[in-house]
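User: Structure please.
Assistant: Input sequence and predicted structure:
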Amino acid sequence: MSLLVDLTEFLASPHRTGIQRVCGELCRWWPANVPVSPVRLSNGSRLLRMPPETLGIIRQYFEASGEQVGLVEASLKDISDRADSSGDAIDLTIGHRVVVPEVFYDPARVAFFENLPDGQIRQFYFVAFDLLPFTHPELFHGDQPHEIINGYTRVLRHANNIAFISEATRRAYYRRLLRKASSAGPVLRLGSDGLGPRPQSQPSRHPFPTFTVLGTIEPRKNHVLILDAFEPLLREATGLRLIFLGKMGWVDSSFSDRIQAMASGECPGFEYHPSPSDAFIRQQVQQSWATLYVSAAEGFGLPPVESLWLGTPVIASAVIPSLEAIGLMGVHLVEPLDADNLRRAVLAMTDRSYVETKSQEALSLKLPTWQSFASDVADWLKQISS
C-alpha cells in the first residue's frame, strides 16, 4: 500500500488560513511511522509526485514568521514548478490510496474525478468539510454558476470513502445530498491548538470589557448583526471595545465603508485589523473577555474552539459544528439569534465573575489538537485499507 496526499489547491495558492491551513497542519503533524507522499494535479490532469522535501517545507511554512513566510512560499512555488518540469506522473495502481483533504471548484479538477476509469474513485479518500454551497446557496456569490460551485459536491456524491470534520457535515451529506438514512464514515475533528500552547491558568485580560471577532468578513459570518448589536453599546459604555480580525471578503460596499469609518475613529472602542499575524491574534484573543462567533452556517468553525483552547469564553450561535460536543462549557449561546439577544449576551459577559467562571470551564475542556487530527486521519486510512 502506498499513501498519497493530494495538495493541489494548497500548492497552487498557499495560505495559512481556512482549508489550506487544514492541509498544512495535516502534513505538519502527519505520523512519522506512516509514510505519505504529496501529489498535485497537473494541467494535463495527471497526478504529479512532489519532491521528497515538500512535507518538510510545508512544516517550515507553518512555523515561519515575518519575512521568512515569503521565502518559504517561494520555495513551495519552486518545488511545484520542478514537479511540472520533471513530469513525474503517477499511474494509479490498486496499491495506491490518495487522501484528498481539500475543497475544490476548478472545473478541470472536478472533471479529473468525474472521468476516472471505472472503480478508480475507490482509491481516493475524501475529507469532507462542508456542503454549504449546496445546502445554503443564498450565502454565496449569486453570480457563480450552479454547476461550478457544486462541482465538488458532485464528486463527493460518488465517493466511496469519505470522512467528515463534523457531525453536521455528515448529517447534511446523507440527509440532504444522498437522501438516505446512514451515518457511515468517521467524524475527524480539527485541531484547536492552532494559536499556540494552552495556558495553564486564565490569561490576563484587558481592564475594560473587550470582545474579538475572528474570521473573514462575509455575509454568513453575521458581522452586520454584530455591529448592529454593538454600535449603540460602544457609543454609550465607556471603555467597551470590539475588535474585528480578518480580511474583507465579499460584502456590500456600504458595509465595508461602515467598518472603515467606524475604525477610523467615528465609533469609540472599535478596531479593525485586516491582516493580523498569528501572534497578534493570540494576544487579542487572550486579552478579550469573550470572542464572538455567530455565523449563520459552518462546516466546522475553528475560531470558537481556538478561543476555548486559550481559556477565552465564546459567545456563539447555536449552529456551530465545532461546538456540537461541547455544550455550554465556556460558551454563551445566543438563541434565537438577533441583535437584542446578542446585546444581552454581551452585557452578561461584562460581568467579570461570569467571565472567570466561563474561562475556567473552557480550560477544563479536553479538546482535539492538530496532532490528534492527523493521527485520526492516518488511523482511518490504515483501517479502511487493511
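The chain is about 45% helix and 15% strand.
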